[in-house]
Every structure is written in structure tokens, then in C-alpha cells.
Design a protein that fits this description.
The chain has helices spanning 17-28, 45-55, 71-79, 102-122, 157-176, 198-207, 227-238, 257-268, 292-298, 306-320, and strands at 8-12, 32-36, 61-64, 85-88, 127-133, 180-185, 188-189, 211-215, 221-222, 225-226, 244-249, 255-256, 273-277. It is α/β, with parallel strands linked by helices and 325 residues long. The chain folds into 2 domains: 8-189 and 224-252 and 288-303, NAD(P)-binding Rossmann-like Domain (Rossmann fold), CATH 3.40.50; 198-219 and 254-285 and 309-320, Alpha-Beta Complex (UDP-galactose 4-epimerase, domain 1), CATH 3.90.25. The strands form 4 sheets. A 7-stranded parallel sheet has the order 3-2-1-4-5-6-11, sandwiched between helices. A two-stranded parallel sheet has the order 7-10. The termini are far apart.
């Protein structure tokens, strides 16, 4: 059943690239959207502001520039808007940075998450949907990764915060009957994404003839997921009703890192300078997820191949940064 156009969705982190695309789809379809973002300087704020400017052309939106760790600020939003569903996609991301600034991850990913759970229950929100992460699997030696796997020994603080989110959400569902839907996402790509992500960094360095770092001497595979597939999965979860449930949203088509770099070289018209390095201690040789449960329950299946979206990304990248190649 489609959500009512009168419903108000609260999306946190809407200035980030995945959430921007989701907010834009909901606004295009006429839904009322409140988005909440502190637009921190974790990466280039101008990129976030440019995304937000696109959304500001819609009449059916409202934007709050506050931090989720401030309970009073968030409660003001709940109290003054008839929010029906919360789509919590805000988080401090990037595994590597969680080793150098751990307290920021606790404040954003744990305290902010807890505040939203508390207020969602207090204000009788119909459904609380949030983005977990594939990083919770990253101490798992088994392939293919499944929602049934044990994941209670995270190898990064970022993964630990996302696993704690899942446990807190489950306890709210069990104790207070708050409907929670968990979505484990992996390596989502498309125009407007984060500059700290590998493909963005690779493209930037290839264009500027700089050396790129290729870990585990390129012998790695990654399961990249196209943004339109992710948005479709989140959209379907909005329409799904369950006390609590967990879904993998992955492409289920892992590719070798060397092949990915070759696609960037082809579309940018330049050869990459590569520096081969050992595997990082928090990394995995391959990521590949079982998505059969997601297919069966949400009727969701990824549709896009890496060759198509790498081409689209390179076109956007060169256009946005005025690059001739």
C-alpha cells in the first residue's frame, strides 16, 4: 500500500548523498518531507549545500539545521510537526576516521540515534526506519554474508556504533512496540556522493595524475550498490509493516578492485598511477551479501550494473568540477 500524500516523513541526514536522493524522490511524488541535518564539515560543506539548494525548490519540505545529539532541538521538531514516519539516515560515517576521532562517532551515532528512538516512541511514530551498515559483518570470515550471521565482535568503532543501533532499536520494538526496520547498506555510489569514498578519490587522483592507493595488492572484491536501487529499497521499506525486521540492501555482484579502476580509466580517458599496499586491519578481502530475504519480503532486487553507473558518475564528476578530459 502506498503511503498517504498527507503523511509527513522526517528524514535525518538529508544533505548527504543517499538521503538527498531519497528526499528528492519523495518530494517529486508529492509527499511532505522534513529533513534534519547539521551539515558538519566532515567533508566539503559546499557539496552538501549544493544538494540542499536543489531540494529547496520544493514547497512540500521543511529544513532544520540542528544536531541530533541535542534532544531539546529534536523534540521541538516532533512537537511542531505531525510526523508519521522517521527515516533516520544520519550518522558519522567512514570506518578509518572512527579510529582517530571516536568520541564524535559516539555522540552522533549513539546519542543522536537514542534521542530519535526516544522521541519516536514518545510521539507515537508509525515506523522508525534506519540505515545500519555492512561494516557490522566485517569480522565474519564466511561468504556469502547473511542477516542470520553472528556479528557481535565488530572490528571498528564505527561498526560497533551501528550494531549498538540495531540492538537499541530491537529493545524499543520489544519493550514499547515501536515498529523498527533495519537496512544494512553497502558501498552506495552515484553522483553527489562523499569525496572520501574510494571511487571519488580514485577519480580525483586519476584526473590530476596523482597516485592512488590500492590495498591488498588489488586482490579484493567489493559489492557496490547503485543509488537508485538503494532508494527503491528504502522506499519499499517505508510501505512495509512489521514490528521489527532486518534487510540487506546490496547488489550481490562483487567486482574486483582492478576492474573498477579500469572502468574509471576508460571513462576518464587517463591511466591510473597505482601504489599497491597490504590489506588494512579492519578491511575484508571480499564483500558479498545474501539478499534473498529482501527479495522475498520487500519485492526488491538491484537492477543496475557497475559499468552503467561508473559512466554516469564520471560524467557528473567532470561536469560538477568543470573538468575537460
Amino acid at each position: 500500500m502506498e503511503p498517504s500524500l498527507k503523511e509527513v516523513f522526517m528524514i535525518t541526514g538529508a544533505s548527504w548523498f543517499i538521503w538527498f536522493h531519497l528526499a528528492k524522490r519523495l518530494l517529486d511524488e508529492g509527499y511532505n518531507v522534513i529533513w534534519f541535518d547539521n551539515e558538519n564539515d566532515y567533508y566539503d560543506v559546499a557539496l552538501k549545500v549544493d544538494r540542499r539548494k536543489i531540494l529547496e525548490s520544493y514547497d512540500n519540505y521543511r529544513f532544520y539545521h540542528w544536531d541530533l545529539s541535542n534532544l531539546d532541538s529534536i523534540e521541538f521538531v516532533f512537537r511542531n510537526n505531525q510526523i508519521s514516519k522517521v527515516i533516520n539516515l544520519a550518522a558519522r560515517a567512514w570506518i578509518r576516521h572512527s579510529f582517530t576521532d571516536p568520541l564524535v562517532y559516539v555522540e552522533s551515532n549513539v546519542i543522536g540515534f537514542s534521542n530519535l528512538l526516544y522521541l519516536s516512541n514518545k510521539y507515537k511514530i508509525k515506523s522508525y526506519i534506519y540505515a545500519s551498515s555492512s561494516s557490522v559483518y566485517w569480522n565474519n570470515k564466511k561468504q556469502i554474508l547473511s542477516v542470520e550471521d553472528s556479528i557481535d565482535k565488530p572490528i571498528s568503532l564505527y561498526a560497533a556504533t551501528k550494531r549498538s543501533n540495531e540492538l537499541m532499536a530491537y529493545s524499543y520494538s520489544h519493550s514499547f512496540w515501536l515498529q523498527t526496520i533495519w537496512l544494512r547498506l553497502f558501498t552506495v555510489y552515484w553522483p553527489w556522493w562523499r569525496p572520501d569514498m574510494a571511487i571519488f578519490k580514485f577519480a580525483d587522483k586519476i584526473i590530476h595524475w596523482e597516485e592512488i592507493e590500492v590495498y591488498n595488492f588489488w586482490r579484493m572484491k567489493r559489492d557496490f550498490t547503485y543509488i537508485d536501487d538503494i532508494v527503491e529499497g528504502i522506499y519499499k521499506s517505508i510501505n512495509y509493516s512489521a514490528q521489527y525486521d532486518l534487510f540487506n540492501l546490496w547488489n550481490h555482484q562483487p567486482v574486483e578492485l582492478e576492474y573498477l579502476i579500469s572502468l574509471l580509466e576508460k571513462n576518464l580517458g587517463k591511466k591510473a598511477k597505482k601504489k599497491y599496499l597490504p590489506l588494512q586491519p579492519w578491511d575484508m578481502l571480499e564483500t558479498n551479501a545474501d539478499i534473498q530475504y529482501t527479495k522475498n519480503v520487500l519485492w526488491w532486487e538491484p537492477r543496475y550494473a557497475i559499468e552503467e553507473w561508473i559512466e554516469n558518475f564520471c560524467k557528473w564528476f567532470c561536469s560538477y568540477y568543470n573538468i575537460n578530459h
